[in-house]
Amino acid sequence: MSITEKVNLTTGTGWGSGPCVGNTGSIPRLGVPNLCLQDGPNGVRFTDFVTHFPSGLAAAATFNKGLMYLRGKAIGKEHKKKGVHIALGPTIGPMGLKAAGGRNWESFGADPYLQGVGGAATVEGMQDEGVLATARHFIGNEQEHFRQVGEWEENGWDKLESAISSNIGDRAMHEVYLWPFADVVRAGVASVMCSYNQVNNTYACENSYLLNFLLKEELSFQGFVVSDWGAQHSGVNSVLAGLDMTMPGEVFDDWLTGKSYWGALLTRSVYNGTISQKRLNDMVTRILAPFFAIESVALPTEEDVPNFSSWTHHTYGQEFPYQHFGPIVQKNWHVDARSEFSDNTALTVAREAIVLLKNSGHHLPIDKGSGIRRILVAGKGAGPDPNGFNCRDQRCVDGVLTSGWGSAAVNNPFVITPYEAIAQKARDRGIMIDYSSSVWDLDNVEDLADYADLAIVVVNTFSGEGYVYVEDNFGDRQNLSLWHNGDQLIETIADKCKKTVVVVTSTGPVSMEKWIEHKNVVAVIFAPPLGQFVGQAIADVLFGDTNPSGKLPFTLARKKQHYVPIIDDLGGDRNPQDNFDRDIYLDYRFFDKHNIKPRFEFGFGLSYTSFKVCNLKITEINPPSEYLPYPQEYLPIYKLVEDDVCDPEDALFPHDEMDPAPGYIYPYLYNENVRSLDDQDDYEYPRGYDPDQPTAPVLAGGGLGGNPALWEVLYEVCAEVTNEGKLKGGYVSQLYIEFPSTILPSPPRVLRGFEKVFLEPGKSAKVYFNILHRDLSIWDPESQQWIIQTGTYKIYLSSSSRKVELCGEIDIGC
């Protein structure tokens, strides 16, 4: 490949300069088309005839590993049918550090183990369908406020000098925020997206310690690092720091201008020796290698191209719509990517994601035989938004919640609202149904509630990505209160109706303290964003067609001060700092450490049946060792040929062959002046990192996801689960470990396994857990290695982070 051909694969062609949200240049000589990168983690964005799948948070709430894989498989299948080459998902950051974080709904809950399992299963499912997966966002992107300088200046804030810096300690980095990325690297993820924010005061996409050392050296990541859209802030520095592909190609402050840190400037940097061709070869090899390394994926040909346009739903349109340039061409072929498999998977995830939090008096499931003849359904969350189901990036917030807003949002092909589904089931049972969407004038609602035998109040909260501003919420939520006067609506109805059921649909934790102990609030269910089948799934649970089996993927607190707040007041500081003071004590770990009683704990969720767990057995498979063995072999190193740098005249723009399109980013030089403007001889690489690809790895590395010994099974845990109730149901057995504090203190317990089984009444099944070397390890910042402490490890099989069913011990001696 020539230098310009290589550069063409590393640099996006510009926003709107291709059918997808991100498009690389092509290599016509080799028959390689522009590579298509498309959101996202919950389905195919910006197109029609696709499924709007439940969110990552919903998948996490199922606590069902097999279902997480099937969801990823269904999402990958639809991306493939639409001609996408690289899907921008799954999301495994944010970690859920901040309850009001705008994008928590995209990822898999507030625990690194849960995030890692969900992320890895999704990667495997997506890539099994022939599309490359991209794990995002690397790393520490825990709030939307101040994530980018430009967004805040546009919204009337004082101009920032830099984006917010997530300041993360070494142990928290390894045990919390890096943990799920090790899982997806182990699963063979093709790409990792670096985030907008700074990490320890260096932008993530030019942070050599993050990209070169932690990701590519410690985790031995073999794929490519792509920038979030506009997250690149330098040219040469970002290349040397480990960025392999820039998207969408432009400099963020000069959108649609064709100005790029790379493109022609990267070509010039190679010709003048600022960037070695060996590094350029490494970038391109990393981009191409996954197409060959992953058995189910193939390098696309010129026939394997997208059949849709992200920029219009019309069949025909201008070739470059944002630049108002080019002929009218066909843009959309309206290929229907949906299938029965997609529908079944999406509906199953939605059903299993619903969490039953309260059911006093067992008033659920709804039964006409128990005297329920008239039902009131109330709340904006029960019906459609007056503006429709498909506002741009799903920023419609005056009706049912299907997702948060932003780049992870998907067009709804249809939506089954809660009222629609509840009304259908009520009619089928001969039950009268009333409905009110009024949330401010509550006189009529009071009257309807007074008549009702049972009231169902559907309330919600919304959040999303920082570039969308909705009702004074810049991505992150202003608070944890219900939207649309939800608290007062619940109290007003509960004062009149003795059987009030509250359905909370939300992108994250909410405060329930104003009404949760009201004597007439007899039942509460929580639903993360459930996609297009939201109403059907909720109605199925309410009427007992589905026995709820979801578990909370975060903690619901009683007091707001128990949550980590969003930083939204800079106090004149134009370089915002976010110190992650919670360290390794994320979510339930913090509550357990300080013995704080939550309203509902992590992993909590009720069922319409009851279960018993017994016969705990712990078996040693391999004897543990305090320290990791030094990896004897490194991953195979591909041979990077140091090609000769030819005459720069070879890279001049071919004006005799084509005219440049405005705003399109090309790899070509416009003159032969390639003198070096930057002397990078003294570039400071991270301590221990060798840019010449060492033959010996660091102690924590040596294989995909880290030292291969970390993935060795040390113990097997087994127990028996019995359904002692009268209904078929699903039970999630959760394994938590309490570490000794021989060297460093640890949380009282951490999640290290979960298994879900479905049982008929009276039936039993065994659940098995593998405890890996990494599951018993802590990161020692002083020695820079994973260690297993000597002492007693307590093993808890639990139905939540606080309700222990069985307890055992593992003693690890010197």
TrEMBL record:
The lineage of its organism: Eukaryota, Fungi, Dikarya, Ascomycota, Saccharomycotina. Keywords: Carbohydrate metabolism, Cellulose degradation, Glycoprotein, Glycosidase, Hydrolase, Polysaccharide degradation. GO terms for molecular function: beta-glucosidase activity. Residues 731-801 form the Fibronectin type III-like domain. SMART domains: Fn3_like. The keyword Hydrolase applies. This is beta-glucosidase. Its EC number is 3.2.1.21. Pathway: Glycan metabolism; cellulose degradation. The keyword Disulfide bond does not apply. GO terms for biological process: cellulose catabolic process. It catalyses: Hydrolysis of terminal, non-reducing beta-D-glucosyl residues with release of beta-D-glucose. Belongs to the glycosyl hydrolase 3 family.
